[in-house]
Design brief:
33% helix; 7 strands; 28% strand; Aminopeptidase; seven-stranded mixed beta sheet; alpha+beta; 6 helices
Length: 184
Amino acid sequence: MGEKVKSEDIRTEKLEEKHAKLLDEFSTENKELKAFLVEDALKNQQLSISTTYLWFYKPTGELVAYISLLNDSLRIRETELEKLFVEKGILYKSLPALKIGRLCVDNRFTGRGIGTFLTKFAMIKASKIGEDVGCRFLVLDSKKESVEFYKKMGFWILRGDEKEAIPMYYDLLNVAPLYKEVKH
């Protein structure tokens, strides 16, 4: 594991056809995440299903990570969250959210802070969306080995009884100070 990457050493670009040749060079042991990037990300974007952002390391130009975002809702029915919202007089079965559909860091850059940058990027995107339309949560389905990382970032487990992916959420009212810092 190398030293932490500085945010100023990262360049973010929305996935475009011009990036197609670079995608094969992305290195991850997770075949599903690699296949999504190479085979499905651009197609999903063209169909307005999700949007993928590529992260490049400026000093070398290497593709080091990607994140795919899409609209979603957080179904709070029969969860602890439902009780909290009912107490506040909010009686909805689901609430608007932005979802991290995929997030992956290249093997050569894991453990160097890029996952944290990607997650904060999604938090800020969701907060910006919330200025124009309702968006209360950032949600994701975490792999078991990533749950602790997301908990450190402020996410909560919605339900822990899932066998594969664990649904987690982040309340965007927590991100307001972070977004205001970046905005100024």
